Amino acid sequence: MTRSTIAWELLEQGIPKSHIAKHLGVSRRTIIRWSQAIQEHGDLQSFLDHYQQTKKGSRQKRKIDAILKHRIWAIREKHYQCCGQKIQYFLEKEYGMQVSVTTIYKVLSEKYQLQSRWRKNKPRGPV
């Protein structure tokens, strides 16, 4: 028996949502979401079927793969004073890849110790 099933049965008995949430160890907002979803699906069984079906989906691929990392590092080494926005421009221009600046800086921080403007590209030591 799942927590959402227990929550629905307790809601039908008229027990307050805050008490149910405390008893099940979830937030009150979660109880509200479950009850709204069950009402949208019509009954508990169709909600559980939909919930199980969505959990069986395939996992999303990693956004940062090894090829992308090497391309970012190569652009940084080729253009020494290159910032994240310029790397983003070069990735779009040369490879047709759209990568956010935040992702670029995450990749750069793995290899370089990113500090101030006057201490760029210092190799990263043991962390």
Please give a quick description of this structure:
This protein is mainly alpha-helical. The chain folds into two domains: 53 residues; 58 residues. The chain has seven helices and two strands; from the N terminus they run αααααααββ.
Describe the protein's architecture and organization:
This protein is mainly α and 127 residues long. The protein has two domains: 3-55; 66-123. It has seven helices and two strands, in the order αααααααββ. The chain has a two-stranded antiparallel sheet. 14% of the residues are buried.
Write the layout of secondary structure elements.
Elements: H1 3-12, H2 17-24, H3 28-41, H4 44-55, H5 66-78, H6 84-95, H7 101-111, E1 112-113, E2 122-123
Antiparallel strand pairs: 1-2
Helix pairs in contact: 1-2, 1-3, 2-3, 3-4, 5-7, 6-7
Tell me the total number of β-strands. Answer: 2
Termini separation comes to 45 Å
How are strands sequenced across the largest beta sheet? 1-2
β-strand percent reads: under 5%
Sheet/helix structural class: mainly alpha
Indicate how many domains the architecture comprises. Answer: 2
Percent of residues in helices = 55-70%
